[in-house]
């Protein structure tokens, strides 16, 4: 079989999530996280984005209305990762979560990025993160990437807001 590599500029266009309560999901993703509601598709689906894109996240109740969250041990989506353009943008979002008293499940420094973890109201994992500039990514003495997981300096992150 011929070796094939997907083009380097390929990106994930959007993610579509099954939710149990459409309005509750809109309240979380738009009201708390700040996405824009682009359109609703009847009473069963909504498309949301950042910056006017047609949609970064689709939300639907087509097969999940009123259903409980999937068990954590079941196969499925681990989390949706939302990349912020600047470290300060992540700090603003963290402060919004703190102000709303929304539960955060984790906060990590991965060397290449800093991340805040939480679950949406349906138990879908959400990672909010920003990437460090590529020339700052940790590498070993051979030049290979060496990601890690350490505690995030939350106080340092929030200090950007002062």
Describe this structure in words.
The chain is α+β, with helices and mostly antiparallel strands. It has 2 domains: 14-64, 2,3-Dihydroxybiphenyl 1,2-Dioxygenase, domain 1; 78-162, 2,3-Dihydroxybiphenyl 1,2-Dioxygenase, domain 1. It is 18% helix and 28% strand. It is built from 3 helices and 9 strands. It has helices spanning 22-32, 87-99, 154-158; strands at residues 15-18, 36-41, 45-49, 57-60, 79-84, 106-109, 113-119, 125-131, 150-151. A 5-stranded mixed β-sheet has the order 5-8-7-6-9. The longest helix is centred in the middle third of the chain and has 13 residues, at 87-99. The model has no long low-confidence stretch (mean pLDDT 96).
Q: What's the layout of helices and strands?
A:
Blueprint: E1 15-18, H1 22-32, E2 36-41, E3 45-49, E4 57-60, E5 79-84, H2 87-99, E6 106-109, E7 113-119, E8 125-131, E9 150-151, H3 154-158
Parallel strand pairs: 1-4, 5-8
Antiparallel strand pairs: 2-3, 3-4, 6-7, 6-9, 7-8
Strands of the largest sheet, in order across it?
A: 5-8-7-6-9
Overall 3D form: globular
The helix-strand sequence is EHEEEEHEEEEH
Total of DSSP H or I helical runs spanning 4+ residues: 3
CATH topology of the largest domain: 2,3-Dihydroxybiphenyl 1,2-Dioxygenase, domain 1
Kindly estimate the percentage of residues that lie in beta strands according to DSSP: 25-35%
Number of strands: 9
Mean pLDDT: 96
N-to-C terminal Cα separation, in Å?
56 Å
As for the number of domains, it is 2
Helix content: 10-25%
Radius of gyration, taken over Cα atoms and rounded to an integer in Å: 18 Å
The profile of the biggest β sheet is:
5 strands, mixed
CATH architectural type of the largest domain:
Roll
The poorly predicted ranges are: none
Class by helix and strand content?
alpha+beta
CATH 4th-level superfamily of the largest domain: 2,3-Dihydroxybiphenyl 1,2-Dioxygenase, domain 1
CATH top level of the largest domain is: Alpha Beta
